[in-house]
Design a protein that fits this description.
heterodimer; B: mainly alpha; 10 helices; 67% helix
Chain lengths: 26, 248
Amino acid sequence: PCQGAAGRPAILYALLSPSLGARPSV
Amino acid sequence: PEPFSGGPGMPELILQLLQLEPDEDQVRARIVGCLQEPAKGRPDQPAPFGLLCRMADQTFISIVDWARRCMVFKELEVADQMTLLQNCWSELLVFDHIYRQIQHGKEDSILLVTGQEVELTTVAAQAGSLLHSLVLRAQELVLQLHALQLDRQEFVCLKFLILFSLDGKFLNNYSLVKDAQEKANAALLDYTLCHYPHCGDKFQQLLLCLVEVRALSMQAKEYLYHKHLGNEMPRNNLLIEMLQAKQT
């Protein structure tokens, strides 16, 4: 039911995903 | 952080939320540090509007940090976390601004997250009519919540309610979210009845203010979109990314 990858905000995903490690530079 | 103790009429949920509140001084120092760093692809001295955009981005990053530490939210899978934040990001930013102004306690100026104070006359002269009207509308809500005597306990509870204010059909694990909504509503009702017994409808009044927070956030998103269409937003702006993300 949730949005697909196409509409996913990449920076938010990077902020939330613990596996990505370093924070994105915004 | 200040130690918080329980007591009669202090719901456990509110105590936990108070302990999760970020330290305003630390948030300010982090954001000021970020704004002082020259960013890639950006001019060394960005225009005031560019700085405001980066400030808003960094404020939202602090809000995401807070959400990640929140009970229930941290138990959800990333897809649901994203859905919740995509639903309420602008409301959380507006509410963060509103509460800062309540603490600031001055009607003729606003306090930025960086600690800078901006006179409303300066906003009127330099911000453009759309931003100026947004700021004035926000100031009206500040006055309303000030008159209602919104306190820190209610603020953290309302913020938690905003985070989880989404219908079940958009979420994979709605039962956890629904449970959080019910607990937060009950905590806020218990707290207001116990601490403001002379103001029997404070709970309802506070929930009504959230409707205005939502309306303000819609207006803020329209403003951002307008700036985006005018090519006035900086590149790699987190808020524009949120604005453009496919909605649930």
